[in-house]
Amino acid sequence: MEKPKISIAPVSDSEIPTCFRILDKSFANNAPFVDIYFPEHDTASGQVAGSRRLLKWKRGSAESVFVKAVMERDKGKEMDDDRIVGFAVWTHMTSPPSDVLEDVEKAEEVWPDEEDREFMRGLWREYVRPRSRAIRLMASHDVVLELLAVHPEYQRLGAGKGLVTWGTEKADVLGLKAVVEGTPVGRPLYERCGFEAKIEEMSFDVDERFQKRRKPELVFMTREPLMLWGPLMIN
Q: What's this model's pTM, rounded to 2 decimal places?
């Protein structure tokens, strides 16, 4: 059976809610970091709030590019229109990210519960540490795959590979290392796209009172560029 044609294109502002619903379906409640970073992402109110945050990110970051995987319409079949089946966010990171949660999010608004907020603060500090170290050690920029989600009904059709390859090709042109903090489920895809594990299991040391909470299971992976030339721009 021939695979459907998948194309990669920029995400428009109006498509952000669709992308967030894909994020929810893709991760379900199987990714602890997503669950705490996007509270109640499986509810209507959580999806509205999450979509608003993604849109603010898209509009406010000149370094980040939101791209979608589109399954093109197959005439004569059930699907009448082109369909977004996945999306990714790639960031040309020119300096280490802040490890202070309040620098990147309206923490009290997103996590109104004080303990949830404190837990997220600790996770965020640990989460950004490896990518910050990579940027400092290399004394260079990195291209970071910050988010990747493919709707479960359309996985293994080439959408994930297309979204990852879009960014790694940009990294190759720039002569930059690509970085991703991947879930165990996503790891095989990243390995097929040339990434190698540098930290098999990222450490999340949090306060003792949070020891019983689910913690992220992530592997820190990098990919060396295939070419070492090109203008310093990602889009």
A: 0.89
Q: Exposed e or buried b for every residue in 19-47, given b needs 16+ CB within 10 A? A: bbbbbbbbbeeebbbbbbbbbebeeeeeb
Going by their DSSP bridges, the two strands 142-150 and 177-182 should be labelled as parallel
Residue corresponding to tokens 């560029």: 225
Beta bridge partners of 197: 221
Residue 68, strand partner residues: 9, 87
- pLDDT tens, 101-130? 999 999 999 999 999 999 999 999 999 999
Which of 74 and 72 is assigned the larger pLDDT? 72
Neighbours of 136 (CB within 10 A): 11
| Domain 6-223, second-level architecture | 3-Layer(aba) Sandwich (3.40)
Who contacts 190 (Cβ-Cβ below 8 Å, separation ≥6)?
Answer: 164, 180, 182, 221, 223
Q: Which of 19, 8, 30 is nearest to 55 (CA)?
A: 19
Beta bridge partners of 10: 67
3-state SS of 197-217 is EEECCCCCCCCHHHCCCCCCC
**Token code pair at residue 35:** 């669950």
